[in-house]
Prior knowledge:
Chain A is an alpha/beta fold and 425 residues long. Chain A is 46% helix and 14% strand. In chain A, helix 10 (195-203) crosses helix 11 (221-235) and helix 18 (378-393) packs antiparallel against helix 19 (399-413).
Amino acid sequence: MNRLRAITPVLLLLAGISCGPQQERVTVLKFWGFGNEGEMVQPLIREFERMHPDIRVEVQQIPWTAAHEKLLTAYAGGSTPDVCQLGNTWIPEFTVLNALEPLDRFAGASATLQLDDIFPGVLRTNIIDSALYGVPWYVDTRVVYYRKDILQQAGYEEFPATWSGVLKASEAIQRIAAAKKKVAYPFFLPTNEWVPAIALGMQSGGNFLKNSGANGNFSGPEFTRAFTLLSEFYAKRYSPSGMQLITNLYNSFSDGVIVMYITGPWNIGEFTRRIPPHQQKLWMTAPLPSMDSLTPGISLPLGTSLVMFRESRHKEAAWKLIEYLSSVETSVRFYGMTGNLPPRRSAWRDSALASNVYAAAFYRQLQRVDPLPQIPEWEQIVIRLQTYVEYVATGTLAVPEALRRFDGEVDVILEKRRWMVENAR
Amino acid sequence: MKRRTMSLLLNSGLFLIGLTTLAPVLWMLSASFMPSGEAGTFPPPLFPSAPTLEHYAALTERLSMMRYFLNSFIIAGSVTVVSTLLNSMAGFAFAKYQFAGRDRLFGALLSGMVVPAQVTMLPLFLMMKEMGFVNTYVGAVIPGMASIFGIFLIRQFVSAIPDSLIEAARIDGGSEFRIYRTVILPLCKPILLTLALFTFMGTWNDFMWPLIIMTDQSNYTLQVGLANLMGEHVLDLELMMAGSVVTIIPVLALFLVFQKHYVRGIMVGGVKE
Amino acid sequence: MNAAPRAAAAWIFLSPALAVIGIFFVLPVLAAFALSFTDFDIYALGNWDYFRFVGFQNYVRIFETPLFWTALRNTFYFVLAGGPLSVAVSLGTALMLHSKLARFRTFYRTVFFLPVVSSLIAVAIIWRYLYHPAHGLLNYALSFAGIGPVDWLGDTAVAMPAIIVMAVWKNFGYNMLIFLAGLQNIPDDLYEAAHLDGASGWQQFRSITLPMLKPTTVFVVMITVIGYFQLFAEPYVMTQGGPLNSTTSIVYLMYEQGFRWWSMGFAAAIAFVLFAIILAFTLVQMLLQRSVKR
């Protein structure tokens, strides 16, 4: 197969010589996929090529760990692909570079792509200054995975809808465990994750930044409320304040040391595989609890989009590929191959997804996700937040002091942005 | 009696250290023959229950490892040939010629070894782009065509060659290049082999530069291809082990064949200052 | 023979290598040095209007960045713990192999050198698995000693030691060879004379082996320190600088700032601060050595 591909140029050349100018022109598209997805997408691409004999797609696999630097160097070197998958948190960065092609004109004219069928919160992450820069390929958000049986023992038939309910349930669970002389951390909030902190922050009103995104506002009232709630879980030992206690999440979950845990869709597969068979009926998923009366609580609009680079010289063909990969049928097949959740709501009516009891929580949650600040520095900021989660979890710093210091660090990161805002550029 | 205890202690110590050093590699070899999923079970199996070659087959069929192998070979081979030549000439010049600013120049070069190479990556990439070498073998080879360490190694070795040999060749009327070719190069054989092996291994094992400079997957090297296998949610452990075996074997074979020279060369380069 | 044509010949021999190093190494280094006085970043890359010369601002900012101090601490941890350990293991194995009592010396020499020639990516794949908290070989072995599972790469307290162990495993064979060479260069008659004088094995080691090995040791320490200060590849492939930056080294920080966040100016400044640190360290080492000689 590969040897055949290697001599294809020679064959094409020979064919060109014999057929002369009548030879049909084949458009060659470059598609970059990351890690495993770059490989899993291959059969879909082959089918796309069968449907469009005039388009050939060269898929290039980029290691996940080096994807970001590879894309930026490619931009600097003017060697970007035509189409690429891009985490939707990276879109602001590439629009600052003016590297992405706005897709509104294609999307408007498309017969198959219905933007209003896409989860609105996720779609909004692809829109910057009211222009569309990416089409969601698969979606991702965070929900709670929990042990049904243990919550039932604590008196909860349903998963608590609010955080105060979760705190009460945690207390009950810990009391029961203590009576049995067992260790229990009812709600596992890893200190090396920023997701719970940011989700709580969104629920308490967002406002992470101020002055048009030129300064940090993490010490403002909204995030302080969120961080205080988070710190309560550590202070009351509902969550371990270090990582060394939980070396194997799945074992701890199956032993009942951990009862609730916030994580993403890939863990449906992992839980199914790694929790022992006799315990399979004991775990369930639920949307995030809420800080107010509106349920479920807001979560993060994560996921991966398909983008077209401005430098592409085959934009029509590139759009066809984006349209094909993001279609309902393809995304359902892709779900079957990878477990990646489809962005189109109509795709969820497909039996494979509709019958998955664990996916239901994701469906409900995806209706309630809000966009994060769309600035290129955002990822750098939230990664730094992890350090402050640890400070608070271990009691090294009190919440107000931690957030004051964090804002100081955020302001250093945003220095350039501040200069641009001040000079109104 | 005391001697025998000493010998026993020493040899068992060596055995233990040897086992520790070898264990990870042996386990990799063993895991590469395990059926899919077996290596990820607990307790970790030491040997495959039913040895299989499927992962090696998958590497060549599914992941075009042969192509990567060839790319790695071409790039590492070219760098080795060119850099051995250039470094040996420069090292010879530093060792056996008197010219103004020689020691200062050599010192300046040595201080360059302290600069973290990563800092040059972006300017270098932009230069390659201006020169049109992005996504070409040339672009992958050029930055490795001479190395400060190589020059240093050769200079150390050549310094030890008696001047009288060179003077004798001069009296016989040999040109300077002839002296280099007929006197210096043959005497330098062990260090040249060392340097060549060293360069080949270094280039073969390099990951970052080929990743950045090669934009087409058909130009990827083995290391880049292998890094691709290291996903976030790793499932194909046995496949990755097979990939690791494939990347290690060629350099290992080279080392085994030439190790005598290699070891001698390193010893020469290391001892003198 | 006059010197002029010979100097010309020297330059002809030098010029190809110097040209390559000049164009593809020195020039990029100078460019990076120039960049370190600018705020070249993602905004400037997108639009040159956002490009500024900022003087020493990047250098000031380095010392205001908490992550830099973390990285500095981690790097010193790696150099001061990993460096001596690596040299000690190299010296120890070299002494053992040099002993006339040792058997299969060539075999062991090859085995010890095997990790040196292996590619780091392959090594990372193996070691990430050995270190796996749930089904890794290391935790399995430790479980027999009653030691509970350790999350080697996920726990901030043990991640750096885990990196150090892997780095020592990967690198000690190289220095071992250099030590072996040093040992072989010690004339046998020194030992014979000492033996006749009735010196014990330990006395011989103290008064002959160690002093004679000094130049070699100095060399090995020097290259080890320089190399270990530039720690990057191991955390890059094993931990991505984590968990919670506990394996973020200075070069890793530079790489992350430059290629992940694209703050190229800032990243370049970090590189030159490291350059200054290594240079200072090397100079101190040379001065110490000179004062000891006197």
